[in-house]
């Protein structure tokens, strides 16, 4: 099985000569690896359309911080259609269950029009939910439990969550809101058990999965450079406008990374230089967690064909 340590170069990689109707191609990789541009080139070659697999790009008005890079969808004078971005307003409940429902609608639409569906993203849980076709169970909110847990400090919430299930997803412990929801889901699944709590839908195959590999030193350079570019492009103003429009600060903190740290800066909790430094570190850590997730997907049987991006732009 190919691994991130033995990727093919773009010079030697060839797509299958024919892509069957409904055959999906997935482009995954860590942040700043060049996924969007790569997927756009594939879509141009294969008469395809792109389905974003990103947990934050579903939100409107969150553009710079989520890396939508809308200009990158233009190639040879035309715009490649992209689905599953700008679906809901910030603050709207939208988790992997809602995403999967929206994905099925968009995917079927693309296939029925005879286009090649090209999935593109780096959100591991969202990728797994659609590649493996998990039949996810909707977990309703438990308002009484939430009120009880709100009084608990973060450390106590982390302990409660660890007692319910292994802490595979570290983002579940980055804010009280996330941890409380994770506890809520774990308690519901404990009370309503199904086989592994995730049943794979019949007849679903992942198709061709391409992983973009960038050597760690180059990836670190790209991440830092892109962060400073987005700050210059108005990332702080984007977050300020969201706050001014009435989006609660704790909601933006919940979305993590850019929205968390810039919100803390705007609230006066962090000075600007410290905000930039801590955000840069957090994005680097996030990219490592993405690769850890992808390796786990491989260990669980998903064949990922890794491609060495070399010095190609991200």
Offer a few descriptive terms.
314 residues, alpha/beta, Rossmann fold, 11 helices, disordered N terminus
Question: What does this 3D model show about the protein?
Answer:
This protein is 46% helix and 12% strand. It has 2 domains: 8-136 and 198-308, Rossmann fold (3-Layer(aba) Sandwich); 143-197, no CATH class. By secondary structure, the protein is of the alpha/beta class. The chain has helices spanning 35-46, 96-112, 124-131, 143-150, 154-164, 176-191, 216-233, 235-244, 249-255, 257-266, 272-299; strands at 8-9, 25-28, 48-52, 74-75, 78-79, 82-83, 116-121, 134-135, 199-200, 208-213, 305-308. The strands form 3 sheets. The protein has a 7-stranded parallel beta sheet with strand order 1-11-10-2-7-3-6, with helices on both faces.
């Amino acid at each position: 099985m190919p691994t991130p340590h033995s990727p093919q170069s773009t010079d030697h990689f060839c797509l299958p000569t024919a892509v069957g109707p409904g055959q999906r191609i997935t482009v995954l990789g860590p942040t700043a690896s060049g996924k969007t541009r790569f997927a756009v080139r594939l879509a141009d070659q294969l008469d395809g359309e792109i389905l974003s697999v990103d947990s934050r790009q579903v939100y409107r008005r969150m553009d710079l911080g989520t890396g939508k890079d809308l200009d990158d969808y233009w190639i040879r004078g035309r715009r490649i259609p992209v689905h599953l971005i700008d679906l809901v307003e910030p603050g709207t409940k939208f988790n992997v269950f809602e995403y999967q429902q929206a994905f099925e609608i968009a995917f079927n639409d693309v296939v029925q029009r005879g286009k090649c569906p090209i999935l593109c993203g780096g959100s591991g849980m969202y990728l797994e939910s659609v590649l493996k076709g998990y039949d996810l169970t909707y977990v309703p909110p438990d308002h009484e439990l939430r009120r009880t847990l709100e009084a608990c400090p973060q450390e106590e919430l982390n302990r409660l969550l660890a007692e319910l299930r292994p802490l595979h997803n570290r983002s579940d412990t980055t804010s009280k809101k996330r941890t409380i929801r994770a506890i809520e889901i774990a308690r519901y699944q404990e009370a309503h058990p199904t086989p592994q709590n995730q049943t794979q839908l019949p007849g679903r195959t992942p198709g061709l999965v391409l992983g973009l590999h960038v050597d760690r030193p180059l990836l670190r350079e790209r991440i830092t450079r892109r962060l400073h570019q987005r700050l210059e492009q108005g990332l702080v103003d984007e977050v300020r406008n969201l706050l001014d429009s009435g989006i609660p600060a704790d909601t933006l903190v919940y979305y993590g990374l850019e929205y968390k740290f810039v919100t803390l800066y705007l609230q006066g909790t962090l000075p600007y230089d410290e905000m930039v430094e801590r955000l840069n570190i957090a994005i680097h850590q996030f990219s490592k967690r993405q690769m850890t997730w992808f390796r786990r997907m491989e260990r669980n049987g998903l064949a990922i064909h890794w491609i060495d991006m070399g010095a190609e732009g991200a």
